[in-house]
Amino acid sequence: MRGVTGPMPGGGNVRNGTSRKTVLSQVGPVQIEVPRDRAGSFAPQIMPKHARRVEGFTETIVSLYAKGLTTGEIQAHLAEVYDVEVSRDLVSRATAQITADMTAWRTRPLDRVYAVLLIDCIYIKIRDGAVADKPVYIAVGISLEGDRDVLGMWVGTGGEGAKQWMAWLTELKNRGVQDVLIACCDGLKGLPDSINGVWPQTDVQLCVVHLVRTSLRYAAKQHWGTIAKQLREVYTAKTPDEAEQRFALFEAEWGDRYPAVVDTWRRSWEHVIVFLRFPAPIRRTVYTTNMIESLNSRFRQATRRRGHFPDDDAALKVLYLVIRNPIKNRPNITGKTPAWKQAINSLASYYGDRITDR
Predict the structure, then answer these.
(1) Of 141, 311, 346, 353, which alpha carbon lies 20 to 30 A from 305's?
(2) Residues 74 and 59: beta-carbon distance below 8 Å
(3) DSSP secondary-structure letter at 292?
(4) pLDDT, tens digit, 9 for 90 and up, residues 148-158
C-alpha cells in the first residue's frame, strides 16, 4: 500500500520490509502487503492503519472492467498502483455480481407506450468455437415524456430472421410495452414484419442514412457525391408527393446505370417516407438510428482493447456497464430528448388517443 514516510529525529527514514495483513472487501478476504519504515511513521492512504475493511474495492474493479481491462490487466493494475496482490479468481468474483445486476436490468418492467423505438447493432469479436464478429442488437426507447433509455440488448449470429426478431420483440412486450408509435430500424432481415407482428399499429421507418450507405455500394465511387446529394433532396422533401416526384427524376437519371439503387428504394418506399408526414422536430428524431452512434462509440472504446470476449455474457457485461455509467458533460444515449414538448404535441395530434389514453 502506498503511504507517506517521515524523517527520523536523528537522520533519514528508510523502508524496512512489509507486514502481511488480511482485510475484508465486498468480494471476500484480500491479503495485502503493508510497507514498514524504521521511524514507524508510514501512514497508508488507501488502507489506514488498524482498518480491517476495504471500502470501494469492488467499485474500483468494476470501473476498470467497464473501461475494457481484462481480469489479468486489473490484477496487474491493482498490484502496480495499490501494491495489492489479488488473485484472478477474486477479480472474477468482483465482476460476477455484474451478471446479477445485468439480469435484473434486462428483465425490469418497461413503460406501456413508447413514442419511438430505435433498433441498431454493433459488431463485437466474440469466441464461439473460433473468434468471429457477432452483432449485438440494441433497442433504445423514447418515452412519452421524452426520456431515452436502452430497453433491450441481444447477441445474434448475423443470420436472424423474422422468428428470432419476433422472440426478442415479444420479450419487450412481455415486460410491459403494449404499444410503439414509430419504430426506426435499418431494414434488418425480418425486422419490419416482426415489429408489426408484435405491435400491429406501429409505423416502421427505415433508417434513411443506412439506406443511402447501402445505395452507394451499388454505385461507382465517382458518383457517390452526386447520388447522395440527390437522395438527400428526396428524403428532405416537404411532403410524400414531393418526395415521389423527386425520386422519379432520380430514377430517370440513374435507373439505367444503377438499377439496384432504384430497386433498393422502391422496395422500401412505404417505410422510407413514414417520417415525411411529420413536422421537423419529429423528423429529426425518427428518420435515422444515428442517435445511438454516441453509445456505439463508447461501446467500441470499451471493447477495442479487449481484442475479443470469451463468450456472449462477457461482452454483454461490458456493454451493460457502459450504459449504466453515463459520462458527465458528454452526449449519452440516456437522458432527455431535445425539443420534446413540440414533438409530443405533433405526435398527439396525429396518434390521438394512443397517447392521451395511456
Answers:
(1) 141
(2) no
(3) G
(4) 999 999 999 88
Distance CA 295, CA 121 (A): 11
Nearest alpha-carbon partner for 41 in 2, 5, 17: 5
Taking phi first (over 0 means left), then psi (-120 to 50 degrees means alpha), and beta for anything else, what does residue 78 get? alpha
Measured CA to CA, the distance from residue 48 to residue 54 in angstroms comes to 9
Handedness of CA 168, 171, 173, 175 (dihedral sign): negative
Q: Quick one: cell of 164?
A: 428470432
- Asked if 62 and 321 count as a contact pair (C-beta separation under 8 A), the reply is yes
Are 15 and 8 in contact by the 8 Å Cβ rule? The answer is no
For residue 169, name the pLDDT band (cuts at 50, 70, 90): very high
- Return the pLDDT at 78: 72
Rounded to whole angstroms, the Cα distance separating 230 from 247 reads 8
Q: 89: which residues sit within 8 A by CB, 6+ positions away?
A: none
Phi and psi (nearest 5°) for 84?
Answer: -110, 120
Distances (CA, A) of 332 to 147, 195, 284, 302, 322: 12, 26, 17, 15, 10
* In contact, 176 and 110? CB cutoff 8 Å: yes
pTM for the predicted model, two decimal places: 0.77
CA distance linking residue 206 with residue 306, whole number of Å? 33
Q: Which residue has the cell 410503439?
A: 180
